[in-house]
Structure formats: structure tokens, C-alpha cells
Amino acid sequence: MKSTSSLSLIAGAVALAAVTGFAALNEPSGGSMAEAGTAARLPVERTSLLCPAPGLSDLSETAYTAFTPSGGSGGSTTAGTAELLSSAKDGEAKPDDKSDDKDKKDKSKKDKGDKPVVSLEEPGKPATGEASGADSPALIGTATGRLAPGWTAQQTTTVEAGDGRGLLGISCTAPDTDFWFPAASTAKSREDYVHLTNPDDTAAVADIELYGPDGSLKSDVGEGITVPAGSGVRVLISTLTSKAADDVTVHVTTRTGRVGAAVRTADDKTGSDWITASAEPAGTVVLPGIPADATSVRLVAFAPGDDDADLGLKLLGKSGAVTPAGYEELHVKSHMTAGMDLKDITRGEAGSLMLVPSEKGRATPVVAALRVVRGKGDKQEVAYIPATGPVGARATVADNRSKGSVLSLTAPGAAATVKVTASAGSGGGTPVSKTYKIAAGTTTAVTPPVPTGLKGTYALTVETRSGGPVHAARTLTETVSGIQMFTVQTLPDDRGTVEVPAARQDLSVLDD
């Protein structure tokens, strides 16, 4: 029989698993959790991801790639599944849509015979799927057991022509209850949709708030939007307000339930892409991965608290951190969206932007995003970079090709070392790894390693080995009709493990 202390700790882990649904009950190798004397990190045993409906164009082609890294999951050996399934329904929510969704039970039913769009069978090897046309629905995904820790999915859509043309990429997101999206717009040249996807068996109710340069864009029609069970809806944000504004911050919250949220933008000159949520409001934020050949960069920031924010700008380049001349500071009024045109700030050298408090001791939390344009004239293409958290222990991005991927690694504080692993290919190939050292205050942009004998697509996994925090982003480029279409995905910590604290409850009665 296990010792009393071991049983006490396992009881605590059971309680945590019951509450969160994430903690797996696997003891670390080499002894019991109790013997370690400290909290143990255990692999999550269930992960959810939501991929929004890919587009509104019949000319679109969408590729899905799902991946779970090998190893590094705390020793999980439990068998599991990882699938992306079509949602029951996806439609456009009208401004006056206040339905209580009386027939939600019928709408939430999926055809049990439907096959997964993507089904992952083993860690370390990507699985792929495809969709085409404007009617492709949102996808709802769940991974369990050994496939859950670090599970990621990428949705990449190519639209060759039209106002929505572009390479649209998004790392499918986890469901939540609160999202911030700077860099949206209600301008006449833009057509921005908020996509909401509900993974659960009961309806969710969401609110959408808009904030422009002068504050809140008042509207009642963004309140109480019903997202049916197991379905997705999209909302054209220009229908929520009569005011046109170039820079708008979108705030999505839920009254009941949880959703996945993303903003799909389309511009008649620069094409389209996804805006993913900014990291949680913070006094210092990092926006990694501005391409070296960016022709236009626009910063959009928002202060959700009661205080104004005075921010200093730092450009982290190959040689170190500099304050860009003419763009030293940005003042962000409380509850107002501020924008700054940084033009070609990188000047031919890949970099990252860091926003810091102008005065020490006066850190006001903000959210932020960059709108990045490459090319000129009728060959312009747009992508968005939100503020993001560090890689942490491990982060992964899927759907890399033999050519066209650039990985940006930024160490905003102390120098750091990371290990980058290119997985096996979806159709074959041998994984390879490479170690990179990033000097303090710099950005290193590299062509990442490619699996030996690659067939298909592959994933990149970044692990912090030593030093300070590292922020990362992957730029994917594809030339279509002479246009260098591109998209940028950030790589925050995959949260593949959960800390289980040592239990204190006395279960000695179990020894009898």
C-alpha cells in the first residue's frame, strides 16, 4: 500500500482534477510526488481548441494541421484522442438577433456519422485536413490523454482574389470568457467580423463592446448575442455602431458559457487576415516578429483601466534595443483606443516592439496589437501581431512548409537559450533540433530547421533552456499571383502541464 503522505497528495490531485478537468494523475518518474516534497507538475489530460469558420469567399481553400509534441508531458502514457469536428452550424448574427435559441437542442446535434476534419493519432507527427468554399463551418476540437499536453492546431486559408484575398492564418484558440482585440476597424474600407464559437452543449451569451479614439462606441445591439450550443456565429462589427473609426478595440465577454473568439479583417487595398486576442492587460507588453521588409507598421493600444497609460517604445532588433526616433512615446487615455503609424520602422531588419511604462512605478495595464503591411501598390498584404506572453517551458506552431517560414525569437530582458525542434512531416521525415542563443534586448530571426526528408507540413516546437523569458512568432509566406501573402502567429506557452500542490489532508484511515 502507498504511504499516507502519498495518498494525501493523490487525494489533492483528484480534487483538482474534479474541479478543473485538466490534471492527470501520473506520478513523476523516480519516486512519489510526496517524496519530492514540493508541488508536482503533471500533464493536462484534456484540451479544447476552436477554429473559426474560415471565410466568406467561394475562392478560399483552407488547410488544417493538428499536432502534439513528443515527450516533455510529465510522463503521461494514457491513450487518448485528438479530433477537430465540424460545428453543428455557423451563421451571421444580425444586430437585432436576441433569440433565446428555443430550438438549441436540435441545432446542437451533430451527425454522429460525420468524420473528423482532422484526427491526430500520435504525438510528434502532424495530421492534416482540408476545407473549401465560403460554407465551411467552424471546427470544435478536443484532445485527451497523451495527445492533450501541448496540442495545437493551425488553420491556414488562401484566398487568391477579391477584397478578402490573402493568406489568413490562425492558431486555433482555447475557449474563454474574456478577449481583447486592438487593431480592428469600422472604417468604410474595412469589413471586420467577430467570430464566436461555442464548444459546449448549452448556449452561450456574449457581449461585444467597441472602443474608438474617443471612447466607447455606444450600442445596445452588441449585447446578449446568443451563440448556440456546438455552433459558431459571426458579427459584422460595423453593424454595431454608426460611427466609422480606423482604430477600434473590440472587447468580447460572456454572460453565460464560454466561447472561442477571433476577428477576421478584410481591407479593399491590403487584403485580409485574422486578429487573435492580445495577451491579458499588462504594464509591459511585447509584440514579436515584425518582418524585415515591412513597408508599414501601425501600433494600436488600449488602456482598459481607470488610469491613462504613458508608454515608451523600444524596438528590439538584431543588435539590441533602441528607441525609434520620432516614435519615442505613446499616450493612451483610459477607455480610449490610441493608434500610431510607425511606417517602415524596421528599416530592413527584423525586429520586435516592446511597450514599457514611461515612468518607473507608474505601470498602467494595456492591450496592444500591430497591423503590419508588406508590399506596395496593388501587391500589398496585411497581417496582425498581438501582444503575447513568453514561450515559457514550451510552445508550438503547426503548418510549416519546406519554404516560407521565418521564426522570430526575442529576449526582452536577460539573454536566453532555446531549443527549436522541427517535427516529423505529416507525410514523412525525420525530426531535427537546433539550439539558438538570443542576446539580451534583441530579436533573432531565423529560417527554422526543416525535417530530414520532409514530406507534407511540419510543426516547430520552441523550449526555453536557460536565461530570461523569450517571446516568439512565426511568419508564414506564400507567393500567389505575384503577391507575397503572409500571416504571423505568436507562440505563447502551451500550458501542457498543471501544478498540483502537495495535499495536507490526513487520510491515515485508509491504512486500516
Percent of sequence in beta strands: over 45%
Average residue pLDDT: 87
The helix content, as a percent range, equals under 10%
Could you list the spans in which at least 5 consecutive residues all have pLDDT below 50? 1-36, 98-113, 506-512
Which class of secondary structure composition applies to the elements?
mainly beta
Query: What does the largest sheet look like?
Result: 5 strands, mixed
Give a count of the beta strands, DSSP E runs of length 2 or more.
39
What does this structure look like?
- The chain has 512 residues and is mainly β.
- It is 5% helix and 46% strand.
- The protein contains 3 helices and 39 strands.
- The strands form 10 sheets. Strands 5-16-12-18-19 form a 5-stranded mixed beta sheet, with no helix packed on it. Strands 11, 13, 14, 15 and 17 form a 5-stranded antiparallel beta sheet that branches.
- The longest helix has 17 residues, at 4-20.
- The protein is globular, with a radius of gyration of 23 Å.
What key phrases describe this protein's structure?
5-stranded antiparallel β-sheet, single chain, 5% helix, 46% strand, disordered N terminus, 3 helices, 512 residues, mainly beta, 5-stranded mixed β-sheet, globular, 39 strands
Briefly say what this structure is:
With 512 residues, this protein is mainly β. Helices cover 5% and strands 46% of the residues. It contains 3 helices and 39 strands.
